[in-house]
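Continuing the series of single-chain predictions for the mutant panel. This is the parent chain; the variants come on the following pages.
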Amino acid sequence: MEIMTVKEVANFLRLKEATVCRLASEGKLPGVKVGKSWRFDRAALERLVTGAQSDMIGATDGGTKNQSGKH
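Parent structure:
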């Protein structure tokens, strides 16, 4: 397991550090608050990004996917 800091996540996702903290606080990024600092599991973030890309691909195919995910 590779643990990342807010700064590392911001660089990885190309976001501002404040945005990373806000998204984590809103539960939109998987992270754990340790004291006043956030920590993130790189593998969980990679799964989130990969899943978001899959969702975007499905959204751009004209909405032709049915409930099973097939065309």
